């Protein structure tokens, strides 16, 4: 005959739950992976008279791999679609709205074991008339 497994109802579950708190690590947010969410570059697009532009297309291109990410600005003229997946090489960021284009801005990355952070962390691009 096969071996029978003896169960003790909820006692095994209770012991398992209690055992997870026995190490010295903090228990709050224990299962969050702080490295999972990529860091983003905040890009603001403005007209030459200072108005924020909704619907502008913002493209960032990695200067070494030539890989790019494109985002569209929201009703505040902002996009955070550009993220650290383009790091660690510098990127070139440019925006277009209709026939208007901005000058390109260069953004560097500062990286640690978990994330790369854009330097600067916010870029304001002005559409040229």
Q: How would you summarize the topology of this molecule?
A:
Blueprint: H1 11-19, E1 42-46, E2 57-62, E3 68-72, E4 78-79, E5 91-97, E6 100-101, E7 105-111, E8 116-119, E9 122-126
Parallel strand pairs: 1-9
Antiparallel strand pairs: 1-4, 2-3, 2-5, 5-6, 5-7, 7-8
Strand content: 25-35%
Helix and strand content put the structural class at mainly beta
Give the N-terminus to C-terminus distance in angstroms.
86 Å
Number of helices: 1
Q: What general form does the structure show?
A: globular
Helix content: under 10%
SS elements, strand count: 9
Mean pLDDT, to the nearest integer, reads 84
Low-pLDDT residue spans = 10-23
Return the string of H and E elements: HEEEEEEEEE
Instruction: State the assembly state of the protein chains.
Output: single chain
Biggest sheet record? 6 strands, antiparallel
- Which value, in Å, is the CA radius of gyration? 24 Å
Q: Can you walk through the features of this model?
A:
Helix content is 7%, strand content 33%. A hairpin with a 5-residue loop joins strand 2 (57-62) and strand 3. Residues 10-23 have low confidence and may be disordered. It is built from one helix and nine strands, in the order H-E-E-E-E-E-E-E-E-E. It has 129 residues and is mainly β. The radius of gyration is 24 Å and the shape is globular.
Salient structural properties:
single chain; 129 residues; mainly beta; 6-stranded antiparallel β-sheet; 3-stranded mixed β-sheet; 9 strands; 7% helix
């Amino acid at each position: 005959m096969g071996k029978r497994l003896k169960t003790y109802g909820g006692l095994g579950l209770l012991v398992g739950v209690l055992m997870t708190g026995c190490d010295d690590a903090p228990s709050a947010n224990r299962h969050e992976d702080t490295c999972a969410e990529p860091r983003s570059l905040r890009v603001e697009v403005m007209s030459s008279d200072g108005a924020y532009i909704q619907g502008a297309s913002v493209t960032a291109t990695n200067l070494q791999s030539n890989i790019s990410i494109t985002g569209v600005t929201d009703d505040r003229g902002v996009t955070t679609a550009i993220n650290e997946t383009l790091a660690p090489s510098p990127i070139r960021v440019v925006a277009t709205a209709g026939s208007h284009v901005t000058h390109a801005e260069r953004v560097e990355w500062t990286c640690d074991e978990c994330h790369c952070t854009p330097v600067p962390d916010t870029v304001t691009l002005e559409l040229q008339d």
